[in-house]
Amino acid sequence: xxxxxxxxxxxxxxxxxxxxxxxxxxxxxxxxxxxxxxxxxxxxxxxxxxxxxxxxxxxxxxxxxxxxxxxxxxxxxxxxxxxxxxxxxxxxxxxxxxxxxxxxxxxxxxxxxxxxxxxxxxxxxxxxxxxxxxxxxxxxxxxxxxxxxxxxxxxxxxxxxxxxxxxxxxxxxxxxxxxxxxxxxxxxxxxxxxxxxxxxxxxxxxxxxxxxxxxxxxxxxxxxxxxxxxxxxxxxxxxxxxxxx
Length: 245
Hints:
The chain has helices at residues 35-43, 58-65, 86-91, 94-97, 116-123, 138-141, 180-184, 197-207, 225-238; strands at residues 2-6, 27-28, 31-32, 48-54, 74-80, 102-106, 109-111, 129-135, 145-150, 153-159, 168-176, 210-214, 219-221. It is of the alpha/beta class. A hairpin with a 2-residue loop joins β2 (27-28) and β3 (31-32).
């Protein structure tokens, strides 16, 4: 299985700093954001990685990460021409991972626990895909892809619904079989002009081959100033840092 770290995007929520640096290179407590998803894949036993970012930003990542050996990985790089969506970014990795199963992770997602058990479960799955879910408040769920379950499978995913049908949302870690790139080529751009990850996942849902698991530990992204601050606090607490007034 190959890992794909999706680290593109314009980072407009962090302007003006992201006019000169990719948001995934900003700090979460004492390390760059992108270190966390790379380590998540490595600790899950996936060390052969592709990092996808914008053409304008790839040199920044190469200077920081090199070949990935400092983090226990072997990293190759692929580029996306613009902000064409997460599924399009994943498609850019095809030449480097074609023929293998794929573990895709958003470059600003941080997980408390190892994801190795979920990867092992997916490896025993004959085909299809798997998504990791997290329970949140219904009000919070409005910001994410909300998932409906039935018969131990995902039956529907709705992106940012005004009235969430459950308190389960999809996190930024996705496991796909070898057909994922063919599925992406079947997608049409959304109203935003992007190839959406939820639309990709919904193809597996329609096929009846999208399984799931539910995270117990904490999970957050670092995609906004507020969530990056939250991530920094959670990481600092994990490292035993004590805050004083």
